[in-house]
Design goal:
The complex is a heterodimer of chains A (260) and B (283). Helices cover 82% and strands 0% of the residues of chain A. With 260 residues, chain A is mainly α. The radius of gyration of chain A is 22 Å and the shape is globular. Chain B folds into two domains: 1-84 and 162-268, P-loop containing nucleotide triphosphate hydrolases (Rossmann fold); 94-159, no CATH class. In chain B, helix 6 (174-190) links the parallel strand 7 (162-166) and strand 8 (194-199). Classes of the chains: A mainly alpha (260), B alpha/beta (283).
């Protein structure tokens, strides 16, 4: 604990050094040939833009739209990802029928989904939710599959010897056995869901942090772009941390094992 | 033998063979076994590593299916695992996400018993194995010996006809193992059930058993059926008695006969898992 405290000053200094470099590079319009800071706004300009957004009435609308989209897509991905993952992880037949098409869909980036999402869904709101859904689905699905496959076969055999049926084995052995893996998937999925937010909100809308960022680019409000980027970063980090915290709460045995 | 009512726990094997592996690699782990075990008998199956003794245990538990012959418990052919035939592995299989108490109560939960009732019974069972003070712990917080005691309690709460043990104390240090052996005999004196105990440790087999079936490897066959009549309760002093050493010498000679062949260990679930699950980059 005390050693952890001692490490904080270094971490803070490192962050401050990055900020300082940014400030200097942007204010002298540092030009390295390959990389130029000519058009990069200074931290101070970004701070002012952030203050403007904070005090404006639109922030809540932006946040509300984005949060509801991310969480709707994420919740759907979590439900489907965990359910499919358990099925694929426990049944060879499900693995053979379901995994090949999913593996083909997996590498397709969120941007590539935009046209199809617009065509397939009745409202642009639903298409945006779908884009965040695609971002979260695969990490959750694959981690669940991995967790379900890695469950010790001796635990399953023992549970059967104690009278557990198929359903009880799923509920009592496979699901909790895969849970640490599922939590990892859920935490990664939360982050990737935010990744896809800007992409999703490129589709349409008036509100949303991704939309705000994209609009700032088209309007050439460069400081606002960075405010949007940082906001997505902070929100993504915060919600991932929340998922991890909830996950640790749901797997108390795992915590004690690692501590002990 | 069926003419009058008997205590449950009789085992009959006739021409029993079990094949493991697939295709060209397949082999008979045990071959044409004929044997019978009386209800309430404590039988040790003694043999070198990989001789098929664990395979036989797996078939008794219902995890492995015989390729030939019959295997019956109280006249009934074995069809899959059952709480009537409890299994204790070499390394514990307690559920890491359940407290020790709820692990022991697991079988009763599967029977549909209410929480209060099953916990009450589980507490009594933990008392019996001397773990009353550890009921609320996670399994990972117990020592190896305690984990095996919890495992035994979890199996016995179902009042099984058979208690099947696959080198249950093999991974423990010598002192703990000796204590666990005495504890097992104490429990068995109170909860009389047929015990089939697999071991490659001659001392252990001689100390515990009413009867030792000595097995030779590849194919696994019984080469000796040894009945022991050391008085019970047995204590550590037995290990140094002349009768004990005499029998030990006999067993050593039987096993030495099979020396020179190093075989991979088999498990009650079949062949040991050689391939680790493929590494998946889950992103």
């Amino acid at each position: 604990m005390t050693r952890d405290l001692k490490r904080w000053p270094v971490r803070l200094v490192s962050l401050l050094a990055c900020l300082l470099f940014w400030q200097v590079a942007a204010s002298v319009k540092l030009d390295l040939g390959l990389l130029t800071f000519t058009y990069v706004p200074t931290p101070q300009a970004v701070l002012e833009a952030a203050w403007q957004l904070l005090t404006s009435s639109t922030l809540l609308a932006h946040l509300g739209s984005s949060l509801s989209r991310v969480f709707a897509g994420y919740a759907a991905a979590a439900l489907l990802g965990v359910a499919l993952g358990l099925l694929i992880g426990r049944s060879k037949w499900a693995e053979d029928t379901l995994l090949p098409p999913l593996e083909v869909l997996r590498p397709i980036p969120a941007v590539a989904w935009i046209p199809l999402a617009i065509l397939m869904f009745p409202s642009s709101e639903l298409s945006m939710v779908f884009i965040t859904f695609t971002g979260a689905l695969f990490p959750i699905l694959l981690n669940t599959v991995h967790g379900a496959e890695a469950v010790d076969p001796r635990l399953v055999a023992s549970a059967r010897s104690l009278g557990a049926g198929r359903w009880a084995i799923l509920r009592e052995v496979v699901l909790p056995g895969a849970l640490p893996s599922i939590v990892t998937g859920l935490a990664i999925g939360m982050g990737t869901s935010w990744f896809c937010l800007v992409t999703a909100e490129m589709i349409a809308g008036q509100f949303g942090i991704g939309y705000y960022t994209w609009e700032s680019y088209t309007l050439q409000n460069y400081p606002d772009i960075i405010v949007g980027m940082l906001l997505i970063g902070v929100l993504g980090m915060g919600s991932s941390a929340l998922v991890k915290r909830l996950g640790a709460f749901a797997t108390p045995w795992y915590r004690t094992r690692r501590a002990g | 033998m069926n003419s009058h009512q008997q205590a449950p726990g009789r085992i009959d094997g006739h021409g029993l063979s079990i094949r493991l592996g697939q295709g060209r690699e397949a082999f008979e782990a045990v071959q044409r076994l004929d044997f019978a075990v009386e209800p309430g008998e404590f039988v040790c199956i003694l043999g070198p590593s990989g001789c098929g003794k664990s395979t036989l245990l797996g078939a008794l538990a219902g995890h492995l299916v015989p390729s030939n012959g019959q295997l019956r418990v109280d006249g009934q052919a074995i069809a899959g695992p059952s709480p009537q035939r409890g299994m204790v592995f070499q390394h514990h299989t307690l559920l890491p996400w359940r407290s020790v108490l709820d692990n022991v109560a697991f079988g009763l939960k599967m029977q549909g018993l209410g929480k209060a009732e099953r916990r009450q019974q589980a507490r009594e069972m933990l008392q019996l194995v001397g773990l009353a003070d550890f009921a609320e712990r996670w399994p990972s917080q117990l020592s190896g010996g305690m984990q095996q005691r919890a495992e035994i309690a979890r199996v016995l709460i179902n009042r099984p006809r058979l208690l099947l043990m696959d080198e249950p104390f093999g991974a423990l240090d010598a002192q703990t193992r000796a204590r666990m052996q005495e504890l097992l005999l104490d429990i068995w004196a109170r909860i009389r059930t047929t015990v089939v105990f697999v071991t490659h440790d001659i001392d252990e087999a001689l100390f515990l058993a009413d009867r030792i079936l000595v097995m030779s490897p590849r194919p696994g066959r019984f080469i000796e059926d040894l009945r022991l009549d050391f008085a019970r309760p047995r204590r550590a002093s037995l290990l140094t008695s002349p009768a004990f050493t005499h029998l030990k010498r006999h067993c050593l000679a039987l096993l030495r006969h099979e020396e020179g062949r190093e075989l991979p260990r088999l498990t009650p679930l079949g062949l040991p898992a050689t391939d680790h699950p493929p590494l998946r980059i889950a992103l």
